[in-house]
Design brief:
Order of helices and strands: EEEHEEHEHHHEHEHEEHEHEEHEH
Radius of gyration: 24 Å
Strand content: 25-35%
Structural class: alpha/beta
Largest sheet: 6 strands, mixed
Number of helices: 11
Helix content: 25-40%
């Protein structure tokens, strides 16, 4: 059974002074997924996010969030959406608890509910012991976790995170990514994560959209994009032999999971869906081949990203 669409844009377009910055963008994000929204600076990511939130109107096209039209019903969209911008702002002379309580009141939470909701949010992000600490004393990583707690106070159906791990140390990055996965899983929250950190996106996102010059260049499951963009499978095994024979090539082609075999001098380049080096070595030996060397490359999201931007 297919999941409900939380975000849908149809030919979404935005132009400023005759310059098109988002060009007929079609985007679909399903309930409960963590979706990676990728693209270089100036690609149109931020403008798209602003249209999703109802903070700027499209020139043409349609944008819906949880069934609401962001242009015609922006207040309804804002009530169900959490947004963490790249630069997070808090009242630094107030404590973490006071900042979250202020957010709760802005969102019209009942006074009796605020203490529990604030406490639960701080506990979720691991900041309970810092509840009475002034935010001005927080590290960048702590502020980012507080931003997630601030979002959780209103318990949105969808969260949009803009570069959530920027300028954070590696340990802090791991904590943030684990936290994002936990929130999506436990609250069935849909999350759109805009980021330049491709390895981080690949770690927690099953589906991504790659945008360039305002156009959606690719959208889908990471594994499928690897197949479509790169060909030859996710892994490439480079084999150096004393002599390449047709028999050895045929034996390698017959291995389950081998997608293609290319020859370049005394090298064979084998595309495969998984690491098949043991099976390949066995096939070479069976064909009386003399193996000199073998190494493997695993394609990553970055390879897909660069593939599409070389074509822009």
């Amino acid at each position: 059974m297919s999941k409900q669409l939380v975000v849908e844009t149809v030919d979404l377009t935005k132009a400023y002074d005759g310059v098109t910055v988002v060009d007929k963008l079609n985007l679909r994000v399903e309930e409960g997924e963590i979706f990676g929204f990728l693209g270089p600076n100036g690609a149109g990511k931020t403008t798209t996010i602003l249209m999703l939130l109802g903070l700027t109107e499209p020139t043409s096209g349609v944008v819906r969030v949880c069934g609401y039209d962001s242009t015609r019903e922006p207040l309804k969209v804002k009530r169900i959406t959490g947004y963490i911008p790249e630069t997070v702002g808090f009242y630094e002379d107030l404590t973490a608890e006071q900042n979250l309580a202020y957010t709760a009141r802005l969102n019209d939470l009942a006074e009796w509910l605020i203490p529990d909701r604030v406490g639960e949010s701080l506990d979720t992000v691991g900041l309970s012991t810092a509840a009475d600490q002034k935010v001005g004393e927080f590290s960048r990583g702590m502020k980012q976790r507080l931003a997630i707690a601030d979002m959780l106070v209103k318990m949105p159906q969808i969260a949009i995170l803009d570069e959530p791990t920027i300028a954070i140390d590696p340990e802090g990055v791991n904590q943030i990514l684990d936290l994002i996965k936990k929130i999506a899983r436990e609250h069935n929250m849909t999350i759109i994560m805009s980021s330049h950190q491709l390895n981080q996106v690949q770690r927690i996102c099953r589906r991504v959209g790659i945008i360039g010059k305002g156009r959606m260049l690719a959208e889908g499951m990471v594994e499928q994009l690897m197949k479509d963009a790169l060909g030859g499978g996710r892994f490439k095994v480079e084999i150096q032999l004393a002599e390449v024979t047709a028999d050895i090539v045929d034996r390698i082609k017959q291995i389950n999971g081998v997608v293609e075999v290319e020859r370049s001098g005394d090298l064979l380049l084998v595309g495969c869906t998984q690491d098949l080096r043991p099976q390949i070595a066995k096939a070479i030996i069976a064909g009386d081949g003399s193996l000199i060397g073998m190494k493997i490359k695993s394609y990553a999201l970055e390879d897909i990203y660069m593939k599409y931007f070389h074509e822009v």
